[in-house]
Amino acid sequence: MLNVVVLISGGGSNLKALLEAAADPAYPARIVAVGADTDAAGLAHAEAAGVPSFIVRPGDHGSREEWGRAFASAIREHLPRGSENSEGPGDPEGAAGSDEGLVVSAGLMRILPADFVREFSPRLINTHPALLPLYPGAHAVRDALAAGATETGVTVHVIDEGVDTGPVLRQARVEIIPGEPEEELHERIKQLERPLLVQTVRDIALGELSLR
């Protein structure tokens, strides 16, 4: 069983999808905690599911790096090194047996400090509303429309020290409808994003997808 900590900043629709999947005993991962950088509305999903949560606010720390260290420490309270994560021994290729668990950035709207990334990566993944390496950054949907693209999509990728530059794990494509507003396109992307993330976490837990 793969232990997962989910990080959010907003409504937590991806978190909700993961919690619903993990409620099935056949799903090979469990959400052990939810972390946020603010009073995110999505924390209500964790509370409803009986999953512990924590908030580490950047404003309570003297620097981005200090915040990152505090955030990492809070995660390690729920995902300690050497904790039992599955029936098997640790797997250096990133399968379910690894004793490092998995950290999922599911709508955390903040660039993580390099020290934080180095501590958890490659067992640190993110979703992005574009077909990376196209349209990285905070305005991916808007950028795809501005470029006149005919399709875009969603990517689940490993977080590295760059901005949306880590190895791609899974992608799903979305056709862009001419004249479609940004908000409607983003919502259609989200409809694919949730099941893609659930499937990706499952594949990691079962050792069917390597993180290295």
Automatic annotation (TrEMBL):
GO CC terms, sorted: cytosol
Keyword Cell wall biogenesis/degradation: no
Ranges where the record places region Disordered: 79-99
Residue numbers annotated as active site: H128 (proton donor)
Domain Formyl transferase N-terminal per the UniProt entry, residue ranges: 3-78, 102-201
EC number(s) given by UniProt: 2.1.2.2
GO biological process, one term: 'de novo' IMP biosynthetic process
Keywords: Purine biosynthesis, Transferase
HAMAP family: PurN (MF_01930)
Main function: Catalyzes the transfer of a formyl group from 10-formyltetrahydrofolate to 5-phospho-ribosyl-glycinamide (GAR), producing 5-phospho-ribosyl-N-formylglycinamide (FGAR) and tetrahydrofolate.
Identification of the protein by name: Phosphoribosylglycinamide formyltransferase
Species, as recorded: Leucobacter ruminantium
Source species taxonomy: Bacteria, Bacillati, Actinomycetota, Actinomycetes, Micrococcales
